[in-house]
Structures are given as C-alpha cells and as structure tokens.
Design a protein that fits this description.
The structure holds 3 protein chains of 3 kinds.
Chain A: H1 2-43
Chain B: H1 2-19, H2 21-40, H3 45-73, H4 80-86, H5 91-120, H6 128-154, H7 159-186, H8 193-221
Helix pairs in contact in B: 1-5, 2-3, 2-5, 3-5, 3-6, 3-7, 5-6, 5-8, 6-7, 6-8, 7-8
Chain C: H1 26-49, H2 60-90, H3 93-125, H4 134-154, H5 159-175, H6 177-190, H7 206-260
Helix pairs in contact in C: 1-7, 2-3, 2-5, 2-7, 3-4, 3-5, 3-7, 4-5, 4-6
The chains are: A mainly alpha, B mainly alpha, C mainly alpha.
Chain lengths: ~50, ~220, ~270
Amino acid sequence: MIAQQIQNGEAWTYVGITWGATAVVLGGYVLLILRRGKALSKRVPEDKRRWM
Amino acid sequence: MWHDVWLVCRKDLRIEARTRVTLNHVAPFVLTVVMLFAFALDADTTLLRRATGGLFWVTVLFAANAIAQRSASVDRPDGLPDALRLSNLSPAGMFLGKTLSLFLQLTATELVLAVAMVLMYDVRLRGIALILASIPLGTLAIAAVGSVYGPLAAGLQGRESILPLLMLPALAPVLLAATNAFGVAFGTTVGPGWRWVVMLGMLGAIYVAAGTATSAALLEET
Amino acid sequence: MTDQTSAAPAGTADTAKPVAMSTSSRGTKALGLLTLVSAVFTILYSFWFSKADVELGNTVRILYVHVPTVSIAYLCMLVNAGASAFYLWKRTAFPDLLAAATGEIGVLLLGLTILAGMMWGKPTWGTFWEWGDPRLTSTLLLFLMYLGYVTVRNIPAPRSARNTRSAVIGIISALLIYPVKMSTEWWGSLHQGRTISAPGASKIHGAQEFALYSGFLTFMLFAAWLTIHRFRVGWLQDQADATELDAVIADRRAEAGAEQFGLGEVH
C-alpha cells in the first residue's frame, strides 16, 4: 500500500518534469521568436516586411 | 557519364598515390584504434572477440570521416571548384566518381583493419559469406554519404567538426545493420543475418540515389 | 493574413496604418487563440478528467505529451522534406523559409519527445534509457540528424549556398526516417526491448482517448502557429541582411565615386 503510494508520488514527479519542461522550452522558444521578430522588423523597411 | 565517373575516380586515386595520405595517416590511425580498444576493454579477449563486429565498423566510420574530409579538400584549392563547375563533367558522374574512389580507399583501409583484428583479437572467422557480402555493401553506403557530406561540409566554417555530426547519425543505420550481420556471422547474435545485408543494400541504394539526385544542385552552390 | 497596406500616396500624411512591427497578424492571433483553447482542454483532460491508467498508473499522463510531440515532429520533418525538395526544384524563398521553420520546430519537438520518453522510462522500467526501445532510439537518431540540419542552417554563408546545403541535408534525413525506424525495430526485437506504448487501441477510451487526441490537436495548432512566426522571422532575417548589404555597397560606391573625383574620403 505504501509502496504503491511512493510509486505514485514518483510518477507524479516525472509527469511534472515532463509537462514543466515542455512548457518552459516551448514557452521560451515562443518568446525568443516573437522578440526576434520585433527586433528584425525594425531593421527592415516597411514595404519588405512580409513575404506576401 | 560513366566516363566521367572513371575520370574523377582516377584523378582522386592518382592524387592519393602521389600523396599517400590514406596509406600514411589513416592506416596507422586505424591500427592505433585497434590498440586503443584493447586497452579500453582491458584486453579481455572474450569481450574483444564478441565485440569485433561493432569495433570493426566503428573504426571504419572514423576512418571514413578522415578519408572523406581529405577527399573533399583536394577539390578546394583556389579556382578548382569553379574549374570543375565549368568543365563538362556531369555532376552525377563526379559524385559517383568520388564515391568510387572513397569506396576503394576505404576498402583498402578495411583490409588492413581486418587483418589487424583477426590477428590481435584472436577472431575465429566464420560465416564468411555474410561477412563478404556485408563489407562491400556497407562500404558503398559509407562512401556515398562521405561523397555527399564531405564536399558540403568542406565549404563551411568549422568543417572538421561538422562533418562527423552530419555523417555519423546518417550512418547509424548502416552501423546497426553491418554490426548485426557480422554478429550473426561470428555467432554472437541470433537471427537472420541476410536481412541485415538486404538492409545494407537498401541503405546504399538510398544514399547513392540521393547523392546523384542532389549532385547538380550542390555542385552549383558549394 | 497580413496587415500590410500599400504606401500612402503623397499628401495623405498619416492616414495609412502602420505596417507590421512584429511577426503577428490577425491570422496568427486567431490561430494562437485556438491553440490556447485547445491547450486548456488538453490539460483539463490530461490531469483532471482522465483517471490514472489501470496498467501504467499516472505515468500515462506523460504519454499525452510524448505521443503528440513525436507525431507532430514527424509531420514537421515531412513538410521540411517536401519544402526542401521543392526549393531545389524552384529556388524560391517560400519553400526554403518553410523548411527552415519546420526543421527547427521539429528538432525542438523531437528533443521534448526524448525527454518525455526518459521521464516515462524511469518510473516504468527503472532506467532513463532503454536501447531496445525503437521509439526512443529512432527518435534520438532523427534528433541528431536534424540537429545537424539546424546547425548547418545557422552557419554564416552566402544565402543560396546555405539554402541548398540545408535542403540536401533535409532531404537525406527524411529519406532515412523509414530505414531508421526499421533498423531500430529489428535491433530492438533482438534485445527483447521493453517498449513505450500508449494504452492499446482496445483499451483506450473515454477521457484518456480524448486527452490524447486533444494533445494531437493542441500540438498541431501550436506547431502551425510557431511555423508561421518562424517563417516570418526567417524572411525578415533575409531581408535585413539584404538591405544592410545594399547599404554597405551603396556606401562603398559613394566612396569610390568621391575618390575618383579627388574629393578624398566621404563620410
């Protein structure tokens, strides 16, 4: 019974790490991309900012 | 095109004959690696014998990296890339020629390696058919990858470190298949050895086809 | 999809809308909103509405990340392959930028797949890694191959050469997806590897099933959103490089022109 609970606790740690890391990595990438987009937009003349 | 293949291959082999880089640098390197593995595995003969297939192919991969690097760099001196572009040689022919030259140089290296391993790891040769089938097919696959990525990396900064990063993951399936074919041959693994040989053939075909198809594009740019 | 308006004709001063100061647009905002909504559902179903699996316990909740990320990563790689091939054929900017975006996003997702797989492995198998598991091993190989793709993409080089090289690497890597899967599966079966498996099709139902599918949807929408932004960033980068190069060339010409007329250095 206790072993089961310990195992359960262990499982939640790994579930937490997975979801946490996913959120952090993807969130971080999103921020990076958005920031780069803003910075680059300033360096490019208006009429050239979009592919279409 | 086949004329171009032979032309390019002969050119590379002539350069090698004159400079003897593979002979003087790679062959000793390969022997050194054989020794290093023995040290690393604590001269455990049983272990070495069991691991022979894997150690053989890993060493071949390291040697291939060096030879591919060298093969690409002979075409880099000033003016040469442009001269090759302007020549009437077909890009596919050039790629296949380089592959053939790499194949031959690698095979020569493997011969040295095989002899060294048989002698020093006390390998008992069995399953010769499987071994003799897997060596050329595996080597062809490795040579093709070297001929695509070698010139590609040669034009880049940090080329010495980028070539292994590109070549080795791409060759991992070859390593898996070849090692297992050897394993079955030596009796250290179970299973149908010939399906690994078929996989080697398939991999070789993919690499050669991909290299041929992209040769024109790469020649223009790099 | 764009907010771009044509340059205001002379005399109409400030009536034109300011053009995109970022990579966002109405389209991406809508897509982003959809993604967030889907994400909320995914999280709710993954943690609240679905129960721990009979066999796998709470570790099944890791699979709600692991399985979608690997599937969408494969999708990214296929798009990358198609775009790379199309680029080599037509040499236009769109396929190249699409390939760059999907390559990078695919690598990211593959990395997360591996992490999730390792996190699943420890409580289940007792180790973080299991060489016999084809999914982990093949994902690792593909991750390394596409890491090479992203690395080469980022090495400074003339644009056309960089794009061609990357396209070739992308195509070869994609061609290897199937052999890699096959060889790692054969190899895995030799070692009687324990494998990662989502709860079997017959067993998964109800809230678990919904969590999984909702995960697919969320990651797909998210990948699409990211791809559009990353695509635009790539476009902006190329435009910025070209603009700045033009400026440098113009400066140099002005200098040369001035020198020609003996005017000395022009600043």
